[in-house]
Amino acid sequence: MGLFDKGVKKTKESFFQRLSRAVVGKSRVDDSVLDAIEEALVASDMGVDTTLKIVDSLEERVERDKYMSFDELVGMLREEIGSLMDVETAPSSEEPLDFSHKPLVVMVVGVNGVGKTTTIGKLAARYKAQGKKVMIGAADTFRAAAVDQLQIWADRSGVDIVKQGMGADPASVAFDTVKSAVAKEADVVLIDTAGRLHNRIDLMNELTKIRNVMRKVIPDAPHEVLLVLDASTGQNAYQQAREFSRATDITSLAVTKLDGTAKGGVVIGIVDQLKVPVKFIGIGEGIDDLKVFDRKEFVNSLFSRQDIEK
Question: Model pTM?
Answer without folding.
Answer: 0.88
